[in-house]
């Protein structure tokens, strides 16, 4: 590259912080533009999410109708419908499944090129993932929510802090999901083939993340254990509960704060794993 484009993608020694921010922003934009090229996949995926939204919504509404008070685990029918349709929209934003790019590059050896770039692989992949999530919020989140709002009674926010807290929770959820997926992919440094861990992640993330049913339907001790002991509820369950106003303002804020702790912990662990893996690559390369 030459001229202006080259200065965007390099870190200036005279202003490392400014250069890092501009480089990170450029990578976010690159991730966004990359997913704008998959138009047919976006349309097909959105349609599929809407179809499964109807199935999930009617199942949970049937569960509510079978209870004595019509409020399973404290959710009324509007909150359940909100939980389902926002969950269908967020599914592609947080990207629970379908990412094995790092594992594949490790398997083929292409990851060596990533290590030669001025931006560490963890930050480069995180920036690209944030760009992908931004594209998902526009193309994959809005249509299912609109369909749900037209066909079912959704709960509108009654507190001023719900919308900004929800958006913050979604952003943190993307980071938490990325941290989990990065660690699962990084097992390829040691296993050379990460298909087993990735499959285990696919099976567990949807169930323990709150996609198939609200985790509040589980016994209280088990739900609390999952929330405090694993990062998975922070990926979908927390932002959906915030949007549905399942809890009071104090507990809403506490859940988002717990999300933030998991995001920091996962990024720190991913950075540690990456450093250990780079040492292993040096040893393997002689």
UniProtKB/TrEMBL annotation:
Taxonomy, superkingdom: Bacteria
Alphabetical UniProt keywords: Membrane, Transmembrane, Transmembrane helix
Organism: Actinoplanes regularis
Protein name (database record): ABC-2 type transport system permease protein
Lineage, broadest ranks: Bacteria, Bacillati, Actinomycetota, Actinomycetes, Micromonosporales
Tagged with keyword Acyltransferase: no
Segments crossing the lipid bilayer: 43-68, 80-100, 165-184, 196-214, 252-273
């Amino acid at each position: 590259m030459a001229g202006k484009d080259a200065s965007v993608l390099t870190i200036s020694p005279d202003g490392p912080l400014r250069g890092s921010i501009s480089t990170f922003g450029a990578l976010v934009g690159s991730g966004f533009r990359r997913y704008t090229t998959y138009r047919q996949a976006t349309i097909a995926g959105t349609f599929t999410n809407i179809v499964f939204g109807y199935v999930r919504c009617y199942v949970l509404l049937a569960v509510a109708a079978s209870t004595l008070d019509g409020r399973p685990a404290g959710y009324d029918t509007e909150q359940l419908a909100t939980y389902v349709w926002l969950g269908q929209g967020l599914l592609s934003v947080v990207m629970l499944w379908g990412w094995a790019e790092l594992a594949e590059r490790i398997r083929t050896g292409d990851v060596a090129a990533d290590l030669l770039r001025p931006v560490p692989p963890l930050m480069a992949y995180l920036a690209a993932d944030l760009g992908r999530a931004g594209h998902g919020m526009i193309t994959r989140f809005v249509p299912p929510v609109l369909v749900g709002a037209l066909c079912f009674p959704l709960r509108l926010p009654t507190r001023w802090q719900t919308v900004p807290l929800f958006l913050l929770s979604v952003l943190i959820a993307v980071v938490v999901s990325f941290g989990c997926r990065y660690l699962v992919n990084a097992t390829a440094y040691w296993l050379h083939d990460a298909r087993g861990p990735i499959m285990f992640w696919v099976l567990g993330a949807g169930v323990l993340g709150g996609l198939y049913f609200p985790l509040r339907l589980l016994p209280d001790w088990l739900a609390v254990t999952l929330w405090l002991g694993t990062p998975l509820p922070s990926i979908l369950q927390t932002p959906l509960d915030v949007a549905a106003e399942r809890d009071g303002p104090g507990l809403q804020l506490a859940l988002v704060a717990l999300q933030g702790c998991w995001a920091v912990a996962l990024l720190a662990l991913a950075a540690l794993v990456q450093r250990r893996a780079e040492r292993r690559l040096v040893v393997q390369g002689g």
